[in-house]
Amino acid sequence: MTIGMIDDNHQLYVLNLKLSHNTHILIGKREVYFSEGFYVYIGSAIRNIRKRVERHYKLEKRKHWHIDYIREYAEWLNACTFPLGDGECALKELVQKATGGTVEVKKIGSSDCGCDSHFLKVTSPFQPCLLSAQPFTNS
Ligand SMILES: [Zn+2]
How much distance in Å is there from the Cα of 139 to the middle of ligand 1? Predict the structure, then answer.
């Protein structure tokens, strides 16, 4: 099973996810509605990005981040990584522009920054994750 394209020297990642149905998801104590469709999540891991992406891939885990609650309902499409550059919020802006992504639910994955959200609804998956050259196999 190929889970994505991981470069161990990178610090930022994008997850392409899909919700197959309209879904109410309980995130901590907050019940949130998500419409079916494609979503992207933008995050960072200053160390060991491979381990972080693998963690997102796994379904059985102690839930910690907002995205962990969503992941349980989402189909994993793929993931890809990027160098730190101007940081995770700048990458989120870039991905949002590239995809025309919209914020369906505010403040998912952006508790510590000024962004509306790091989880965006998109009309199609973020393409660079589909085009990367180094498959990472989870086996
Ligand atoms: Zn941000």
Answer: 32
What's the count of helices (H) and strands (E) in the chain, helices before strands? Answer: 4, 8
Does this model's pTM top 0.85? My answer is yes
* CA 47, 79, 128, 74 torsion-angle sign: negative
Query: What confidence tens digit (pLDDT) does each residue in 66-109 have?
Result: 999 999 999 999 999 999 999 999 999 999 999 999 999 999 99
Residues sharing a CB contact under 8 Å with residue 32, sequence separation 6 or more, in sequence order: 24, 25, 26, 105
Distance 90 CA to ligand 1 centre (A): 8
**Cα 132 from Cα 108, distance rounded (Å):** 26
State in Å: Cα 106 to ligand 1 middle: 11
What is the rounded distance in angstroms from the CA atom of residue 100 to the CA atom of residue 51?
29
Confirm if 58 and 1 have CB atoms less than 8 A apart.
Answer: no
Whole-number Å distance, alpha carbon 7 to ligand 1 midpoint, is 22
